[in-house]
Write a structure and sequence with these properties.
alpha+beta, about 750 residues, six-stranded mixed sheet, 28 helices, seven-stranded antiparallel sheet, elongated, 18 strands
Length: about 750
């Protein structure tokens, strides 16, 4: 028991208490002194609530023992555990300094200081995660910035309270939540999976780190709202403005990194703290070199660094086997996503100091090994938060079938599958850019970065067909669900309706999304629309935008509730406005969007087209508002990143726009996204970068018309005219448009 001596000095075992530092819901912390070893210490008393808390007490003891084995300058060390009648005490290192929360009272930190602090915290997290420990309550209050630091260092941040006490001071924004009998952390430090009561792992700490760094660089908490319920809603659904939009002095790479750390879907966050630390150190330098580090690196050089880092990791793995500082029995594994689920391409560059390099690499390898052991088993027991489904072209087996009807039948199946997936929350359809992409399902899933593949096969004799749908696992092609039913090839609308009905049984675990309209269209109008869409996408000779718009408006007159009609109208007019700058095209596009909003204001397709039209009109504030609604509806949809990049570009924020577009490529490296990146790079003078992006686009989809056209233009203006002539020959053979014919002639000349 803690007791008092005659002179009034209070003792806890051999430790002398000096004064109270703080207290909260789980305990209180005192400054103290260890007279045996002549050092100052901190003593935390963990509240004891009787026999009902005995299990929690044993858990805290186990965590204290595990933490006592962690030796890193970024982690406050645990020295001892003392049991008394009035509570249990944890004896820790006493850090001379102030909390990050205290420093933020004067506003956001200088960006370089914030980055240095992030490196310290990441180094500590990497060590803890490698030992199986998750902090669960990372926030500015639990990071202490020491007044004394290592030589040459600007910051020496230390992490407090790994899974022990959750706070010192009570308050609205520091409320602790309880699920069952277990406190899970401070509200503003929680990840979406914590708020939902799901299992947590290292990536939950990375989300909390992103929130903390957002506040550190902007002075604003990213998710705090007027009530606890509103805060939880924001954490789970809302994406705050980018850091650079609030503080332009923050480097673009760091702003982008913070956004990735705060991804709602944990699979889309960086894989672990060690890799994030390596990414920062490969981009950010010490004082004197930082300006150059903020420029984007050449992808070839980055690849070379990755290869060198991979060799370093291989060498470190053997060294790790001989290291005995952490026993295998002390490692507590936590669920993590498999390698394929992570959509962030991170550089891994060895640090400058051999000792620090070895330590970071050793813990990075340990973390990866632990995560690999538990990933597959963990994910088998719960579905991912956001499911990416590749939808290849419909495979066909025909005999004596009318070609025109058959083409419409296959198009109806594909359209219905994409629309059907749209009706599910947290399911995103990924469509290949070319028929040639309908390859082996596993290879297709790897190419499109998809979790699953939804295939369709039409087996027809004359007009009668059997449609077979299959839901396949993207990692190994394993069959997850299948169904087959008869359809009439001459009735595309009936095919679509039947496909939509059967698809609902494919995803029984998925929640339906409200606001998606039914397929309300006359059968003959639906067939006419499919033909129009095909002609427009194929750029049929003699078929103009005016022809398309006139036909679409005619169809709207008889099927006014069919959403695809005004959406295609808006898309075609916006595309033509970009070429002609005719204000009437933009005005008509806005009218079409208004008609679409009257049908389905919260349909993601409506919002996507609205953002494009408003962006073309220069109404950036309204475009951002529409984009924000899209973020709430589909936080995992990569199209929003591409749209956001275009808006940033229109506002003159080129560096941030390119960083955002590269982030989209990292998440979904499809032909269309590579094309958009190449187009943006070309517009801003990076010819070589644009060429690489466009070549990547055509490697994925060799017949991708837009990619081939832009690459031909690039070669004509800045490259090899002979090569450009070859590209234009192919383009003209497919669609002899005026611009392509003119450019082909210029290339020959």
């Amino acid at each position: 028991m803690a007791h008092s001596l005659q002179d009034g000095v209070r003792l806890v075992g051999p430790y002398r208490l000096e004064h109270l530092l703080g207290k909260g819901g789980m305990g209180e912390v005192y400054a103290g002194f260890d007279e045996r070893l002549d050092r100052r210490v901190a003593l935390k008393r963990v509240w004891s609530e009787g026999e009902s808390d005995d299990r929690a007490r044993r858990r805290l003891q186990r965590e204290a023992r595990a933490l006592a084995k962690l030796h890193h300058q970024a982690i406050v060390q645990v020295f001892d555990w003392v049991e008394t009648d009035d509570g249990d005490w944890i004896v820790m290192e006493l850090v001379e300094g102030t909390s990050l929360r205290h420093q933020l009272r004067n506003g956001p930190l200088d960006p370089d200081r914030a980055i240095a602090l992030a490196c310290d915290v990441l180094a500590g997290l990497a060590v803890a995660h490698a030992a199986g420990l998750v902090h669960r309550d990372l926030k500015a209050d639990n990071v202490v910035v020491a007044t004394t630091s290592s030589p040459g260092r600007e910051v020496q941040a230390k992490i407090l309270d790994f899974g022990l006490a959750k706070r010192f001071d009570a308050g609205l924004d520091e409320t602790q939540l309880s699920l069952g009998d277990s406190l899970i952390g401070t509200l503003t430090a929680m990840s979406p999976e914590q708020c939902r009561g799901q299992d947590i792992g290292p990536r939950s700490d990375l989300f909390a780190l992103g929130s903390m760094l957002y506040e550190t660089t902007t002075g604003t908490s990213p998710f705090r709202a007027d009530s606890h319920a509103a805060t939880i809603h924001r954490i789970c659904t809302w994406n705050p403005p980018s850091v650079r939009s609030l503080n332009p002095t923050v480097p673009a790479f760091f702003s982008s990194l913070i956004e990735r750390l705060m991804e709602k879907d944990l699979r889309r966050r960086p894989q672990n703290a060690a890799l994030v630390l390596a990414e920062i150190e490969s981009t950010w330098r010490q004082p004197g070199d930082r300006a150059a580090s903020r420029e984007s690196s050449d992808p070839t050089e980055q690849h070379a660094r990755n290869q060198a880092a991979a060799a370093t990791l291989d060498a470190a793995a053997s060294a790790l086997e001989e290291d005995s500082t952490t026993s295998g029995s002390d490692l507590l594994a936590h669920p993590a996503a498999p390698d394929g689920a992570n959509r962030s391409a991170l550089d891994i560059t060895p640090a400058s100091s051999p000792a620090s390099r070895y330590e970071r690499v050793r813990w990075a390898v340990a973390s990866l090994v632990i995560m690999a052991f538990v990933a597959i088993a963990a994910l088998q027991f719960r579905p991912p938060e956001t499911l990416y489904v590749a939808v290849p072209s419909t495979a066909t087996t025909t005999a004596e079938v009318a070609e025109n009807n058959f083409e419409l039948a296959t198009q109806a199946v594909g359209t219905a599958l994409v629309q059907g997936l749209l009706t599910f929350r947290h399911v995103v359809a990924v469509v290949p850019e070319d028929d040639g992409d309908a390859q082996d399902p596993v290879a297709l899933a790897r190419t499109l970065v998809a979790d699953e593949v939804l295939t369709s096969n039409l087996e027809c004799v004359a007009r009668q067909c059997r449609l077979v749908l299959r839901r396949l696992n993207g990692a190994d092609g394993r069959l997850l669900w299948t169904t087959g039913f008869s359809v009439d090839a001459s009735r595309p609308l009936e095919i679509s309706l039947a496909t939509l009905e059967h698809l609902r049984g494919a995803y029984p675990e998925a929640e339906l999304r409200p606001g998606i309209p039914d397929l309300e269209v006359r059968a003959e109008d639906y067939e006419a629309f499919l033909r129009l869409e095909t002609r427009f996408n194929n750029r049929d000779e003699g078929f103009s935008t005016d022809d398309l718009i006139g036909e679409l408006e005619r169809l709207e007159g008889s099927s006014p509730r069919y959403l695809d009609l005004p959406l295609l109208t808006a898309s075609a007019l916006t595309r033509r406005f970009a070429e002609t700058r005719d204000p009437s095209d933009l005005r008509r596009a806005r009218d079409a969007i208004a008609r679409a909003q009257a049908i389905a204001p919260e349909d993601p397709r409506t919002l996507i087209q609205q953002v494009r039209v408003l962006g073309a009109a220069g109404e950036m504030e309204k475009a951002e508002q529409a984009l924000e609604r899209l973020r709430r509806l589909e936080p995992g949809n990569t199209q929003r990143l591409q749209l956001h990049a275009r808006l940033l570009e229109r506002q003159g924020h080129v560096e941030e726009a390119l960083a955002t577009m590269r982030q989209a490529v990292e998440k979904v490296p499809s032909a269309a996204v590579y094309y958009n990146l190449g187009n943006m790079l070309f517009r801003h003078g990076d010819v070589e970068g644009a060429r690489r992006a466009l070549q990547s686009s055509l490697e994925i989809a060799p017949r991708y018309y837009n990619g081939l056209s832009l690459l031909a233009q690039l070669e004509l203006v800045n490259g090899d005219p002979e090569r450009a002539a070859g590209y234009y020959e192919e383009l003209v053979s497919r669609s002899p448009a005026t611009a392509e014919l003119s450019n082909a002639g210029t290339a020959y000349l």
